[in-house]
């Protein structure tokens, strides 16, 4: 049985609460990613997605200098490194999310994306099921 710790991305770029939305957006562009975890003293405080920036900043006419904490999603679903890939896929399908922060003892240790599960060719088709469940929703929800 495969665990999240076996497939997660371990070298995760982050921003801090001191950063503003412009800085987060520039890091997303530089890294070609759509999500940046917000971390203070190694503890996961929240996550900002490109969608969060569009809906909570641009669409609400907030300046790019807005505080990260005003835009980020704070109530997150997370998994631990010892969570099975099947459990993670079920959580992603149920909660309609595409990325899960991996936390151990309150500290961010990685991130796993739905694509990470899909490329592992899970024998029980959990990743395919999760993707189909998430894709049924017209708009991607922010990570909760």
Automatic annotation (TrEMBL):
The entry's keywords: CBS domain
InterPro entries attached to this UniProt entry: CBS_dom, CBS_dom_sf, Diverse_CBS-Domain
Protein name: CBS domain-containing protein
Pfam families xrefs: CBS (PF00571)
Presence of keyword Nucleus: no
Coiled-coil segments on the chain, per record: none
Superkingdom per UniProt: Bacteria
Keyword Lipid biosynthesis: no
Domain CBS per the UniProt entry, residue ranges: 8-65, 72-128
Lineage, broadest ranks: Bacteria, Bacillati, Bacillota, Bacilli, Bacillales
